[in-house]
Fold this protein.
Amino acid sequence: MPRPIAVLGGTGPEGFGLALRWARAGETIIIGSRDARRAQDAAEKINATVGDKTRASGNENNAACAAADLLVLTVPFEGHAALLKQIKPVIRPGSILVDTTVPLAASVGGRATRTLGIWQGSAAQETAELAPKGVSVVGAFHSVSAELLNADGPVECDVIVCSDDPTASEAVRFLAAKIPGIRAIDGGKLENARILEQITALLIGLNIRHKGHSGIRITGLPAAAYQSQDGT
């Protein structure tokens, strides 16, 4: 049976775009939201867009979380800690929790081109502190444009994946590579996610200045660095 992916906050642009891309790749998707009806509406939109064989459903965040052991957190930073505390009791032991969050200053009325200082070092490290023991936290997808994810063409961007669990990192890189155009690279320990979050703020500034949808490409690495275990 396919392993479902719960995209928490999946009614927003980033979460919906990731869910849509994975649905197109044949993955089973559960959209999570504070509002179950909104989640169901988003899932129905994915099913209508992708076709009859799509396996997308929607539910309230806790129910979506309880139904999967591969979770992708795509909420704005202002709701980050609150959602983690809410779902903590229903996260399955051994789950992989992917955090895409960037702590932008805009969440407290500042500029979207700056990140906030976080005591733990990064939003991903805050997630690791708040998640139950035994849950593998992975920082990834920070620099992928929501606009490109929601479009039809390839997403010309590298996804750098950071985690203290090599097995979880490999699973997420494999998942990232299912999106056309994306190359997934092992970025090392979870603490490196703080660098990715800063880069995302820089990309937002470039997008504002040049009216584009920028991403990043890492050059000069051997071909194996861009491949998951299945060779993609």
Observations:
- Residues 193-210 form the longest helix (18 residues).
- Strands lie at 5-8, 28-33, 55-60, 70-73, 96-99, 136-139, 157-163, 182-186.
- The chain has a mean pLDDT of 89.
